[in-house]
Amino acid sequence: MSITNSTLQEIFSATSFSIAESNLITSKFELKKLKKGDTLLHANEIVYNQYYVSSGCLRTYYIDKLGKEHTLQFAIKDWWISDYTAFFSTTKAVMTIECIHDAIVYKISRETMENLYSEIPKLETFFRKKMEKGFSAFQKRILATLSQTAKERYVSFVHSYPNIEQSVKNYHIASYLGITTESLSRIRKEISK
Amino acid sequence: MSITNSTLQEIFSATSFSIAESNLITSKFELKKLKKGDTLLHANEIVYNQYYVSSGCLRTYYIDKLGKEHTLQFAIKDWWISDYTAFFSTTKAVMTIECIHDAIVYKISRETMENLYSEIPKLETFFRKKMEKGFSAFQKRILATLSQTAKERYVSFVHSYPNIEQSVKNYHIASYLGITTESLSRIRKEISK
DNA sequence: ATTGTTTATTACCATACATCAATTTTCTTG
DNA sequence: CAAGAAAATTGATGTATGGTAATAAACAAT
Fold first, then answer.
1. Distance CA A115, CA A113 (A)
2. A with B: how many residue pairs have Cβ under 8 Å apart?
3. B128, B141, B145 ranked by CB distance to A128: nearest
4. Is B40 within 7 A of strand C by CB distance?
5. How confident is the prediction along chain A (193 residues), in pLDDT tens digits per residue?
6. Is the CB of B131 inside 8 Å of chain A's CB atoms?
7. Residues of B in contact with A128 (CB under 8 A)
8. CB contacts, 8 Å: A140 with chain B
9. Residue A177 contacts strand C, CB under 7 A
10. Taking a contact as any Cβ pair under 8 Å apart, which residues of chain A between 99 and 128 contact chain B?
């Protein structure tokens, strides 16, 4: 229950806090260790928390009515993860979060976040900017799905996220790109020629 | 140059400001009237501004290397519009914003926004929450593209945005859904049976 | 190392959606 | 309301990606 000051530095690198602020913030985060295969968040559960990923790898995925998995997001060091649609409104998760590689994450609730925001405005600024980045990333992804072929999207994924590409299964990547693992396999073969 | 207090109310409905705050904010917005067919933002232009839509209808679209248009977003009354990826980093627009129906918008620059945020924290809260909603909406759209057929996405679009559906061309909707206008036509035929 | 299990590949056929070209319908504007 | 322009529809055919099933390769565990 609670994290260290150096962890605080890790999470909010560019931001500087007073001692009082630091103490307040560190007291609110909770460390969690995850093993490969663990489920951090189950679909249908009410989402109270978001998580900062300090190490390891996780993914958020959605299971559709046919039972197929669709990966919305991967998260490695220095990424935040949750089912954000549910998190922002404290409603039930549509997605599941799974640990792909043993991980260390720091957990914080939305209620706590909102309270911290009013006490420490620069924390709100920090997260507003995070959100702007995330919004941007999603926008780019939508444009990519609209305008590119599966092959182009794969190439650009490998290029943009070399660290992730190495540490996840091909079928995870396929479900992120919106294609089957067989199609991805064919694409990889073509590229390797 | 500058808007009225009642317009301020319109934009920030749920939020209340002191007189000084109101005056400060209203002085920063600039009214702009647009005619159908006008371009509010050109691709390749540096993006300094975002716009609140008071009336009318606009859309943001991307032209790919083959010359095809892909609609990222529509905006009607009470929506905000810009090329946000470019706006957040004050870089060149990738997209174009076109007026689809005569519109009235209020313009404000990012620099002004950032200054207002530090003076009026609740304004930052307002936009953080807007951003959370937008992030959520994009997330849902990505999940929909990953897991649904074109027909399902069309039905859900019509259901979610009845006001937009009425006021835009079918080929706009097609380019938003990521299909051709011919395919959309076939889908509509099937549904009408 | 051997065996079992998970993941990736390959082949063959199916399907959703795209493309192209023509036609019809709807909207504009004098 | 007539004539032209823009948008939507339809038909015929093409293509990217999906589905199924079998096989091969990679990984894990004893």
1. 5
2. 96
3. B128
4. no
5. 688 888 999 999 889 999 999 999 999 999 999 999 999 999 999 999 999 999 999 999 999 999 999 999 999 999 999 999 999 999 999 999 999 999 999 999 999 999 999 999 999 999 999 999 999 999 999 999 999 999 999 999 999 999 898 889 999 999 999 999 999 999 999 998 7
6. yes
7. 117, 124, 127-128, 131
8. 85
9. no
10. 117-118, 121, 124-125, 127-128
Taking only Cα atoms into account, the Rg of chain B, rounded to an integer number of angstroms, comes to: 18
Would you identify the CATH topology of the domain B5-118?
Jelly Rolls (2.60.120)
Residue of B nearest to A88 (CA): B132
A166/A179 Cα distance (integer angstroms): 19
What secondary structure does DSSP assign to B2-65, as a single string? ---HHHHHHHTTT----HHHHHHHHHH-EEEEE-TT-EEE-TTSB--EEEEEEEEEEEEEEE-T
Could B136 and A62 be called an inter-chain contact, meaning their C-beta atoms sit closer than 8 Å? no
What's the pLDDT tens digit per position in B130-183? 999 999 999 999 999 999 999 999 999 999 999 898 889 999 999 999 999 999
The domain ranges of chain A are 5-147
CATH of span A5-147: 2.60.120.10
- Which residues fall within 8 angstroms of residue A125, CB to CB, at 6 or more apart? B117, B124
A158 touches strand C (CB under 7 A): no
Give pLDDT tens digits for A23-67.
Answer: 999 999 999 999 999 999 999 999 999 999 999 999 999 999 999
